[in-house]
Amino acid sequence: TRNIDLAVIPGDGIGPEVVEQAVRVVEAVLADTDTGVSLTEYELGAHHWLATGETLSDATLESLRGHEAILFGAVGAAPGDTRVPSGLIERELLLKLRFSLDHCVNLRPSRLYPGTGSPLRNPGQIDFVVVREGTEGPYVGNGGVIRQGTEFEIATEVSLNTAHGVRRVVRDAFERAAARPRHKLTLVHKHNVLVHAGHLWRRTVEEIAPDFPEVAVDYLHVDAATIFLVTDPARFDVIVTDNLFGDILTDLAGAVTGGIGLAASGNINLDGTAPSMFEPVHGSAPDIAGQGIADPTAAILSAALMLHHLGLDDAAVRIEQAVANDVEQRSGTKPRGTAAVGDSIVAALRGVTV
Ligand code: NAD
Ligand code: IPM
Ligand code: MN
Questions:
Q1: Which of 172, 239, 299, 342 sits at 20 to 30 Å (Cα–Cα) from 165?
Q2: Could you give phi then psi for residue 71, rounded to 5 degrees?
């Protein structure tokens, strides 16, 4: 028998509400197996910073490293909360975790489950995955401000792209495309304007493509990609892109596949040197926090991605199937609360065997 050792970071706002349901589902699905699970909860986020001044200490980071995987809710203060500097928790906790634990691939699958209401009139069969670079790009904080507050102020935000960083993400995207039935990879960038980084990405794709002759490669500028995500999202299979474009595209992808409350993600450490971290694409949603109405499905599907990553594919597939069954029954019914969705998915698990 195996025991998986998980760290859980519920975070702020709706984070704890949705993570509670994800944990229930993990416990329920593993209860039917010979795999046990132990959970260590870490009190981190805006509320924790307000109480202690800690965003993420070295000791906490080291302790997190010792777990097999991390389940993360969401962090971020309410917009009106002027006590918390904007973005502090996002950068000093969430991005620090992604960077320190070398989460180079931010994996964000998008699937339109039958029965889900897409806002698109003709969504078609949407089933693609965005391989978003996770540790570089404009996210690294490379830049600065001079002559602040004057008419001559200059602010720069320089995107970092390394050959190593781009190569490992592009190779991973090719491997995923090769393993999927449609064998298609789309590089999304903006190399007509962002020539330096854009050409590194483009050359890297050209260099790796011969290793995957079965994968059909194409390219879209990011602005055009947003058109096709709305007019013809079924055309996409694997999208590989940088950190910022991937952030924007995956909120859009969430919206066209029935809402951000369904969009899951994994921050993957490819070489196994640190735990990977799984979290919904959405944030702390201060506008609905505390009301018990947040959709926990994205967190639950993120937990399924985690189980896949840990090699527990049967358990993961059971969760995905239970979610698909539950989502199918949602159409036309009144929205349910967070716990009711959790109950329903736990109940749906019983009907699913793999
Ligand atoms: P958000 O994703 O929190 O919310 C956007 C909209 O989607 C809101 O109307 C919200 O109510 C809705 N929504 C989000 N999740 C939902 C769910 N599970 N069920 C139903 N509705 C849901 O994005 P935002 O408003 O831009 O950001 C709020 C805070 O969260 C900010 O502080 C931001 O920096 C932070 N944030 C954190 C993460 C993260 O921790 N991974 C991700 C994105 C944003
Ligand atoms: C996400 C979020 C984060 C990002 C923020 C909160 C730093 O928007 O996970 O998509 O931009 O990556
Ligand atoms: Mn985002």
A1: 299
A2: -105, 125
Q: Does residue 294 line the site of ligand 1, with CB under 6 A?
A: yes
Which residue has the least CA distance to atom 11 on ligand 1? 285
Residue 35 pairs in a beta bridge with 2
197 has which bridge partners? none
d(CA 256, CA 233): 8
SS3 state at 199: helix
**Global confidence as pTM:** 0.97
What is d(CA 189, CA 198) in angstroms, rounded to the nearest whole number?
Answer: 6
For residue 136 and ligand 2, the question of a CB distance below 6 A is answered with no
Q: What is the pLDDT of residues 196-230, one digit of tens each?
A: 999 999 999 999 999 999 999 999 999 999 999 99
Q: What is the ipTM of this complex?
A: 0.98
Residue 5 annotated as lining a ligand binding site: no
Which residue has its alpha carbon closest to ligand 2 atom 11?
A: 247
Q: Given this model, what pLDDT does residue 117 score?
A: 83
Report the distance separating Cα 27 and Cα 137, nearest Å. Answer: 37
Domains of the chain, start order: 1-104+263-354 (3.40.718.10), 118-257 (3.40.718.10)
Instruction: Find out whether 284 is annotated in a ligand binding site.
Output: yes
Q: Which atom of ligand 1 is nearest to the CA of 279?
A: 41
What pLDDT, on the 0 to 100 scale, is given for residue 335?
A: 86
Asked if residue 315 lies in contact with residue 307, where contact means CB atoms within 8 angstroms, the answer is yes
293 is in an annotated binding site: yes
DSSP code string of 214-257? TSEEEEEEHHHHHHHHHH-GGG-SEEEE-HHHHHHHHHHHHHHT
Which structure tokens are listed for 185? 């990879």
Whole-number Å distance between alpha carbons of 331 and 116: 6
For residue 8, how many other CB atoms are within 10 A of its CB?
A: 21
Q: In the numeric block, which tokens belong to residue 151?
A: 């008419």
Question: What positions carry a catalytic annotation?
Answer: 139, 190, 223, 247, 251
State the amino acid at position 292 in one-letter form. G
Quick one: how many helices (H) and strands (E) in the chain? Answer: 12, 12
Is the distance from the beta carbon of residue 127 to the nearest atom of ligand 1 less than 6 Å?
A: no
